[in-house]
């Protein structure tokens, strides 16, 4: 439409915008501006990945000019997926093509545009089908689900050899498969993350709320909705699946409640003060009530967060590690509430050694979680023998270890305290004969 006519007809201008993908798309659905051979668009279900892939392919065909020998590979888990999702799906190429619409030749498994550009369909179940053909571009859908992923990918790379800058787009929901992890690490990969919630305007009302309430914070939810690549360490002490089964929203802490604190070694935006609240249960186990950790806070800020957690959960005691900060930790906490009951602990063994007995408690089913504590679980599952999680000190995990150690392993929980009181009540005549030094020793054991 001539510019003058478009300017004189606002309705025509609006109609034109409604068909302009560069205007309709969210920024993460458009190709990265930096140089790349592989554009990896990794996101949740219904996040708009397929639409982005279809528009990219259609845009390539349109940009090829009135006559073109452009060749594109369309690779899916199966041929059925290629047709039902990439071609004829709600966001497939034939649906999004507003002009110069391609024709799908079923028997030849290809799309043909009026200008001569062609796109061929391939299945991950048949890598050998990619041996021979050559292409300018490729769109790979749900790569993390491919049956013969590495073999199919390798064959595609050999065929991606036409034009000045052959490239490929990968749209997938993340799964911790070796091929996807390798692809993310490659220097010529441009990674874009996209979440289901970002596309809420195009989804059924209530869909996001319903799935978030059911799967929010879980491994499955973070993978299928948030588009996060979630994986466990092979040499780790915990597994995500096992921790998800430990969640019990109806469990109650009926015994002693402690707030454990692992102060950061420094300050700044990336510093984290681990603050975990846990309480004893009637069955002799422990319930992790909350992860109240503070990121990037000052000492005054995390001290206030500790006191707030103590009051919120009506806790009995604060357990604070003093390896980092020494007496300053107690002083900072007391500056917020001078009556705050604080017990200090000092780590004398490595983090991994201290965590192993706590991991054994989980294996025995003696620890439950009152909710999905995603960042805490991340640290637990990425924690290894080097004492680090994601290359950093696991502050949240350290606080968890101190809390559960206090409740279940070192006798600072309600059962141990009750044990000392019961000892004095049941045998007062023996207790009266004990020297003060012995009573002090017993108090230290049970305190």
Task: Report what the structure shows.
The chain is built from 19 helices and 15 strands. It has 447 residues and is of the alpha/beta class. The strands form two sheets. An eight-stranded mixed β-sheet has the order 3-4-5-2-6-7-1-8, sandwiched between helices. α13 links the parallel β13 (317-321) and β14. α12 (299-312) packs across α13 (327-336) and α14 packs across α16.
- Number-wise, the strands total 15
What percentage of residues falls in helices of 4 or more residues? Answer: 25-40%
Q: Mean pLDDT score, rounded?
A: 86
- The chain-level structural class is alpha/beta
What is the oligomeric state here? single chain
Q: What low-confidence regions span 5 or more consecutive residues with pLDDT below 50? A: 412-447
Cα radius of gyration in angstroms: 30 Å
Largest sheet strand order: 3-4-5-2-6-7-1-8
Portion in strands? 15-25%
End-to-end Cα distance, whole Å, is 83 Å
Main β sheet profile: 8 strands, mixed
Shape by Cα distribution: elongated
Please work out how many helical segments DSSP would assign: 19
Topology:
Blueprint lengths: L2 H6 L1 H8 L3 H4 L13 E6 L5 H15 L7 E6 L2 H9 L5 H4 L6 E3 L4 E3 L5 E6 L13 E5 L7 H11 L7 E6 L5 H8 L3 E6 L12 H9 L3 H6 L15 H6 L11 E6 L9 E9 L5 E6 L2 E2 L3 H14 L4 E5 L5 H10 L5 E4 L5 H13 L3 E3 L4 H8 L13 H15 L4 H13 L1 H6 L2 H11 L1
């Amino acid at each position: 439409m001539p510019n003058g006519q478009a300017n004189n007809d606002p309705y025509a201008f609006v109609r034109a915008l409604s068909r302009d993908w560069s205007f309709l798309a969210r920024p993460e659905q458009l190709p990265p501006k930096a140089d790349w051979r592989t554009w990896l668009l990794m996101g949740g279900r219904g996040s708009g990945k397929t639409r982005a892939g279809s528009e990219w392919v259609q845009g390539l065909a349109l940009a090829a000019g009135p006559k073109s020998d452009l060749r594109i590979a369309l690779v899916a888990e199966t041929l059925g997926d290629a047709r039902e999702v990439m071609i004829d799906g709600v966001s497939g190429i034939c649906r999004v093509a507003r002009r110069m619409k391609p024709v799908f030749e079923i028997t030849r498994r290809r799309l043909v545009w009026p200008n001569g550009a062609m796109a061929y369909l391939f299945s991950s179940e048949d890598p050998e089908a990619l041996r021979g053909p050559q292409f300018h571009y490729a769109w790979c859908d749900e790569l993390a689900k491919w049956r013969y992923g590495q073999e199919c990918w390798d064959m595609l790379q050999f065929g991606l050899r036409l034009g000045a800058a052959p490239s490929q787009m990968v749209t997938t929901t993340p799964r911790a498969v070796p091929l996807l992890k390798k692809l993310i690490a490659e220097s010529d990969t441009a990674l874009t993350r996209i979440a289901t919630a970002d596309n809420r305007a195009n989804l059924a009302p209530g869909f996001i709320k319903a799935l978030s309430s059911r799967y929010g914070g879980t491994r499955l939810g973070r993978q299928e909705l948030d588009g996060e690549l979630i994986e466990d360490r092979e040499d780790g002490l915990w597994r995500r699946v096992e921790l998800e089964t430990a969640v019990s929203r109806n469990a109650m802490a009926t015994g002693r409640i402690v707030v454990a604190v692992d102060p950061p070694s420094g300050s700044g935006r990336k510093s984290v003060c681990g603050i975990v609240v846990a309480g004893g249960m009637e069955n002799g186990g422990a319930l992790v009530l909350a992860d109240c950790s503070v990121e990037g806070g000052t000492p005054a800020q995390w001290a206030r967060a500790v006191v707030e957690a103590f009051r919120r959960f009506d806790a009995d005691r604060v357990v604070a590690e003093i390896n980092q900060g020494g007496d300053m930790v107690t002083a900072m906490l007391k500056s917020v509430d001078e009556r705050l009951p604080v017990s200090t602990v000092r780590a004398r063994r490595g983090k991994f050694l201290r965590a192993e007995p706590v991991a054994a408690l989980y294996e025995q089913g003696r620890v439950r979680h009152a909710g999905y504590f995603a960042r805490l679980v991340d640290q637990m599952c990425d924690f290894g023998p080097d004492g680090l999680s994601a290359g950093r000190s696991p502050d949240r995990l350290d606080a968890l270890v101190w809390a559960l150690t206090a409740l279940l392993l070192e006798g600072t929980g309600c059962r141990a305290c009750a044990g000392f009181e019961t000892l004095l009540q049941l045998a007062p005549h023996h207790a009266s004969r004990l020297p003060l030094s012995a009573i002090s020793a017993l108090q230290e054991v049970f305190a």
